[in-house]
């Protein structure tokens, strides 16, 4: 008997028994004579007959589905047990493990704080933004700051402000020198009276 791909031998045997009207299981005894080849293949001398009605097919499929459902009938119970087991393990976590977790978290926070402080210190001494620095150690951070300074075109930030070459002049005074705001206002009023 040739099987269709995906069809198990047990399913094919069940279909054959149903079609032949035989509901008993195979006894595994071998037939003699011409049926020896079919008995060796598990056919017991019976040939496959196709299913004749939709009801017969529904019955076979229903039996197969029921067998599969029976295999997974306790799935929800097993899932609930697994959840309870996980909760019990978490509750049974030793006090020592909880302390280890807290210490590890504290060490992580301390490392981040030290790194941020080192980054800020190097940025302050070199005169570059802390967010522009790359590296984890002081040497790496200083090398990154030096690269930024070289890129900017300076070797170090200027500590003294630049002084202008000449005296400062206000842009509001115009070209007049030595006049006060009161003198300029009086001159503007004289010009207005003459223009009327």
Describe the structure.
The chain has 196 residues and is an all-alpha fold. Among the domains are: 9-75, no CATH class; 95-152. The chain has seven helices and no strands. The chain has helices at 9-20, 36-40, 54-71, 75-91, 95-126, 138-152, 181-195. Helix 5 packs parallel to helix 6 (138-152). The termini are far apart. The model is unreliable at 23-41 (pLDDT under 50).
Topology:
Layout: H1 9-20, H2 36-40, H3 54-71, H4 75-91, H5 95-126, H6 138-152, H7 181-195
Helix pairs in contact: 5-6
In summary, what is this structure?
This protein has 196 residues and is an all-alpha fold. Helix content is 58%, strand content 0%.
Distance between the termini: 126 Å
H-E order: HHHHHHH
Number of DSSP-assigned strands: 0
Kindly name the structural category: mainly alpha
- The 3D shape can be described as elongated
Mean pLDDT: 76
Q: Report on the biggest sheet.
A: none
Total DSSP helices: 7
Poorly predicted parts = 23-41
Strand content: under 5%
Radius of gyration: 48 Å
- Helicity level, as a percent range? 55-70%
Task: Tag the structure with descriptive keywords.
single chain; 196 residues; 7 helices
């Amino acid at each position: 008997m040739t099987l269709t791909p995906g069809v198990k031998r047990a399913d094919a045997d069940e279909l054959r028994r149903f079609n032949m009207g035989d509901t008993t299981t195979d006894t595994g005894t071998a037939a003699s004579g011409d049926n020896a080849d079919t008995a060796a293949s598990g056919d017991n001398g019976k040939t496959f007959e196709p299913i004749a009605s939709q009801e017969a097919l529904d019955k076979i499929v229903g039996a197969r589905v029921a067998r599969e459902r029976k295999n997974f009938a306790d799935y929800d119970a097993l899932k609930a047990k697994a959840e309870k087991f996980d909760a019990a393990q978490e509750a049974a976590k030793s006090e020592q493990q909880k302390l280890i977790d807290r210490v590890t978290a504290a060490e992580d926070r301390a490392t981040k704080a030290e790194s941020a402080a080192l980054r800020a210190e190097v940025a302050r001494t070199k005169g570059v933004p802390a967010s522009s620095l790359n590296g984890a150690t002081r040497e790496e951070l200083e090398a990154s700051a030096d690269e930024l300074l070289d890129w900017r075109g300076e070797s170090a930030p200027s500590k003294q402000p630049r002084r202008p070459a000449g005296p400062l002049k206000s842009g509001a005074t115009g070209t007049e020198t030595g006049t006060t705001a009161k003198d300029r206002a009086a001159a503007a009023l004289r010009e207005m009276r003459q223009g009327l």
